[in-house]
Structure formats: structure tokens, C-alpha cells
Amino acid sequence: MVRDGGVKKKNGHASTSKGKGPVQAVQSAPKKGKAKGKGKKVKPNKARTENRCFTCNEVGHWRQNCPKRHEAGASLGPCNQGGIANLHKWEWVDRLSGLEQRADDVAKEFDEFLEGVIEEHLSKNVADDKGQDIVDILLEIQKTNTTGFTFERDLIKAITMDVFAGGTYTTFTNLEWAMTELRHPQAMKKMQQETQEIGQGRSMISEDDLYKMPYLRAIIKETLRLHPPLPLLIPHESTQDVKVLGYDIAAGTQVIVNAWAIGRDSSTWADPNEFQPERFLNSPIDYKGFHFELIPFGVGRRGCPGIHFAMIINELVFANLVYKFDFALDRRESLDMSETLGLTAQKKCPLLVTVTSCK
């Protein structure tokens, strides 16, 4: 899906080399420009990830009716309505429909919200801090100037916004779809067996246990393949001329990647519309942007910056729900698998199940 740029076909049609599909073609396209600096291997923080919220550091405060939590959620709502089209500038159409004004209002609300978050972190007593969150780290980078360039407050707001907005609806959406796909009895049975073996009667599954749970990760991957949180990824713009599948894509072309279609491509996946977590058990394919067959969060330096934070929370919550409870659907009702129309593809009808404690 391409907009606003010059895209030309070779001899009136797209030419492809033998055995090379869209994924391989993109991988072999010219890659100019490299990220500066050496990458560092980062180990996951062993502190409870769900406590590392940038709006409220203390668990008790977050679990209460935190004003900032509800304030941010209310502002996020309009951003998800209307789908990918609302991310584009439609000039007079935007002004006529009132979309431009609504977008400006939401942007102003978020700017005020994030300004308050930053001020709260600047004024808090460091001695009473129970651990740094992402805003603390960004403020420390700004203070020490370790990046080598001007780290302005607007940049801190932008990064914080990306992590928060990107992790709110996408995390909830992926978790609900994963729970929905447990309607398959075999998947539920295998998942429960794995959590019981790892949990060994403890009160809960810990973050350190996640890396010993291959079937859990397989279910998450299969869920992301069938139900990517963003069916159409955030638009990107080409910085230089490039040729893909015989198409000349000019610099400045806006490109939208259809992650939903990639995940259901029959030339890549066997039985693409079937829920089969086992396909990932002996496969190196992951969702972190290194394999073009599965890119629910984008790829490269422009991929989702909060992917690790969001997915650890997702896996931890999912594992503990299955570890602690049994879930059953109402036999009198069929499960509605339809999706909503929006930036994120949520279930049109919320998942309703009967929950009982595991014996």
C-alpha cells in the first residue's frame, strides 16, 4: 500500500526474480546508511516489569484510581478511532470533518499530561525512589548529555508517548486475542501443563520463568501472526530511491506495510488461517523485527521502541492467568471472532468467559 510518491512499474508490470517473493525482495533491496555505535546486549530487568510505569512508580498508587492513568486513557481513545486513515493529512477533508481540530485538541491534552509527568519526576525525592522508570532514565540522559546531541524536553515527551500509546492498546489487544485462541482445547491443555510444570505450586509465574516456556511464546507468536495489534503498520517514508519487485519507489514516498496480509501469506505459511502454535516451536522466526515473515511491530530502527517492555508484561500476565485459572466459554453462545475497525484490531465483541480457580 503506497501513497504520495512516484511508483513506477518496469515494462508496465512488476518483475520478480525467480523464487523471490515480497519478503525476500525487501530484504535484498539496497540498504544505505548504518546506525552509529555498537549495539549492547541488554538483560531484562528482574524487578517486576508492571511496576515500571512512567506515570506512577509505586504499585499501590497505580492500583488505586490514579488520575493520570484515567486522564491518559481518555485522551488515547480518539487516537484509535477511524483506523489508519486518521494518521494521514487529507488537507481540506480534515478541516471540513473536524478531524484536524480534534487531533490538535488531543495533542494539546497529551502535551499537558506529559509535561505534568516530567515535572512530577523532577520534583520527587530521589532518596525515596523505589527504582528508575523510563522517564527517570531519559531525564538522566538529558542531564549528563551522554548522547552527544541536544536532548530536549519535547524529545523526552515523544519517546514517552511512543512507549505509552504503543503499549496500551496493543498490549490489551494481543492479550485478549491470545485468551480467545485458547478456545482450542489442545492449546489450552498444553499451555496449562507448561505453566504447572514451571510454577511447581508457587504462588505465581515470575519474569525469569518466561524463558523456560516455549509453548507460551509459541502461542504469543501465533496470536501476533493471526491478529497483529496494528493490521496496517504506522506509515513510513522512503528517504531515497529504491527498487522493490520491479517497482521504482521514489524518495519521499509514503509506504504502509500490511502486517495482517504478511502474517496470512499462503506462500510463507502452511494453513495460514489456522491457529497452530506448534509451527513456532522449532522455528527461529520471532516478532522482534529480524524476520520479515512476522513483523507486527515493524522492523529496524523505526520499529516499535516499547516492544520488549510490552511483550514481557503480556507474557507474564498471560502465563499467570492460565496458571491460576480455568476458562470456559458459555456453550449456549458461539464465539464472535470479528474485529473492530480502528488503528488497532480489537475484538468487536469483548471476550466473555467463565473463570474458576485451578485445583
TrEMBL record:
Keyword Thylakoid: no
Cofactor(s), by name: heme
Skewed-composition ranges (Basic residues): 31-46
Alphabetical list of SMART domains matching this protein: ZnF_C2HC (SM00343)
Domain annotation CCHC-type: ranges: 52-68
GO MF, any single term: oxidoreductase activity, acting on paired donors, with incorporation or reduction of molecular oxygen
Pfam families for the chain: p450 (PF00067), zf-CCHC (PF00098)
Region spans: Disordered: 1-47
GO terms, biological process: sesquiterpene biosynthetic process
Key words of the record: Heme, Iron, Metal-binding, Monooxygenase, Oxidoreductase, Zinc, Zinc-finger
Binding site for heme: C304
PANTHER family with a match to the protein in the record: CYTOCHROME P450 71A2-LIKE, CYTOCHROME P450 FAMILY 71 PROTEIN
Family of the protein in this entry: Belongs to the cytochrome P450 family.
Protein name as catalogued: CCHC-type domain-containing protein
Taxonomic source organism: Centaurea solstitialis (yellow star-thistle)
